[in-house]
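How a chain folds remains the central question behind the approach discussed here. This step matters because it turns folding into a mapping between discrete strings. The sequence in question and its structure tokens are set out directly beneath this paragraph.
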Amino acid sequence: MSKFQGVIVPMVTPFTRDDTQTISYEAAELLVEKLISEGASGIFTFGSNGEFHVCTPDEKISFSQFVIEKVAGRVPVYVGTGACSTHEAVELSKRAEAIGADALSVINPYFLGISDDQLKGYFITVAESVKVPVMLYNIPKATGMNVSPEVVREVAQVDNVRGVKDSSGNMDNFKGYLDAVRGTDVDVLVGSDGKISEAHALGASGAVAGTANLITKVVADLWNALESGSEREAERLQAEVEPIRDVLHLGSTPQTLKRALELAGYPVGPARFPVAEVAAGVDDKIRAMLDHYRIAHH
């Protein structure tokens, strides 16, 4: 059975609403139970929605360990361990493996562009430093570079590289990944929630869906409808992802998503600084969106 299938939720990292903005473990426990009970196939800590870029390595390990303990094997737990530095990514990957992560998600180095050869070296070194399955993570709008299908083709030869997640939103790139891994046991996952149906039709084995933090059941039902060939139901559910996406565009990731969860009764707190609280008037739009999904709010 492949490790990277179904709806994997890149869960938000809850913080306290005070000057320290430390991680709130109580809120995390509530969220984990919600995600599992509403049909998530996996939970992924420290993706973009998990604010990996503003958390320390120690926070990542402590929090991921807590999530792994709370999930207790009910679904796989993936941990984001990529970094700008190969050394840091290797250290973090080894630590995540040691605490029992089922798999790792490795983003490419960001900030300064590197050559494809350097990128291959990074991915291969990180993957070979552990034994657990590794998923490559492409999100060009955030990293400033697209991981090319050629890089994926070469890195896919490493035994424990088992997945690649494409959040480019570019379906030609997505198809390039599918071609690149043909004949291997590497899964290609979609990271653009508006394109889940399109990606499934092309051969995606799963979706890493940020919106599923809140509308877990909608996204899980969408995936199930796609898998069972219920086209009209899938069409309806794919359209059902749009109201939350419209609201998420009103702020920086994951500011409005966290606010929506908070208003829905999951005290996940704010995004970490420099991202501030949502702008005036956004709460009303979030409440209208929660009403659309019939989610009770405070």
Q: What stands out?
A: The beta strands are 6-10, 42-45, 77-80, 103-107, 134-138, 161-166, 187-190, 206-208. The chain has a mean pLDDT of 97. Residues 254 and 284 are 17 Å apart (CA to CA).
